[in-house]
Amino acid sequence: MFLSLIIFVFSAIISALARPTEDWKPPFLMQAPESVVQSFDNMIANSGGLTDEQIEDSIKRWVRRQTDTIQTSYEKFQRDREYYEAVVAEQKQKMLQRMSPMARNAYTKIYSIYTHPTLIANDKLMLIEKIMNTLPYEVRAEIPL
């Protein structure tokens, strides 16, 4: 659940605020028209005041209003995501063992914020950014975000 979920949620939020690249799209929208991607981006951009569960519910409601092709792509994305979350969970311990003590401590704090069920997305981003900004560059570079 760890890295792929982080990548998905943060990528979705980042894509709505300022796409990492002009061509970036969520995996399940790769074949979707730009207007559909923009609709998704707008929905995510307005989700900063929501918890993870509320964001997930919003995404599911949005997907149900889309074409069968997009719904099928989303279902496949969900299945793939579950698989990769399991794979990543196995790798998490190895990654933590390779980190410096300072990075491991910071990562543990960040992960607890990221997985907190009642914090809203904006607060999570703010708290994580606050932690990252206090770390030396070398330590920040060790943390996969």
TrEMBL record:
Question: In terms of domain of life, where is this protein from?
Answer: Eukaryota
Q: Where is the SXP/RAL-2 family protein Ani s 5-like cation-binding domain?
A: 38-140
Instruction: Print the keywords alphabetically.
Output: Signal
Q: Does the keyword Signal apply?
A: yes
Keyword Metal-binding belongs to the record: no
Q: Where is the signal peptide?
A: 1-18
Q: Supply the name of the protein.
A: SXP/RAL-2 family protein Ani s 5-like cation-binding domain-containing protein
Task: Name the species this protein comes from.
Answer: Acrobeloides nanus
